[in-house]
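Extended Data, panel c. Modelled sequence:
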Amino acid sequence: MVIDERLRRAPVVPLVQAEDPETAVCIAGALSAGGLELIEVVLRTAGALACLQAVAAAVPGALIGAGTVLDGEQAKAALAAGARFLVSPGLDEGVVAVAADHGVPAFLGVATATECQRAWNLGLRTVKFFPAGNIGGPAMIKALSAAFRGMKFMPTGGVSAANLAEYLAVPSVAACGGSWLTPPDAVTAGDYGEITRLASEALAIAKSKRSN
């Protein structure tokens, strides 16, 4: 799959949250300039779908997905706006069904062994691990991986440049997601150069860790 290859090259998925399309495009462009190839536009604002559509059109070099997708109807709307993958904070069968119907990857959130088992039985083999920093971090992922040996994890929530290498050292971690790459202060100030710097830093950490 295209997304698997991109995750291998750049196993960091930044989150973009904006109220207006112009800001979203600037953020996404800065992330792409820093070398990050998958960008998740989160559906947390009133203008999120417009932002998603604008980013998908304006940053063709990146693979754009929708995050914080809570149900099947949101999943359909996100796909109509141009999303090429879906991410949910939790495990929702409606989102899984829409993704399967449209043939797009979906990364549903898990936090426990029970949720991992439900995800496995729904056919999911890569899941979001959220909120990673509050539910055991790398140690918890290692513990779950012992039981769910064919499952890959995408930890999000509490991931930063300081602990990115520790997460990526876990063999079952496919990639890490997070909002540390798009700090609100930099967005408010229009300091998109800082966002590019953070993206480049994260990519360098990832490449260094994954090349060992």
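The chain has ten helices and nine strands. This feature is highlighted in the accompanying rendering.
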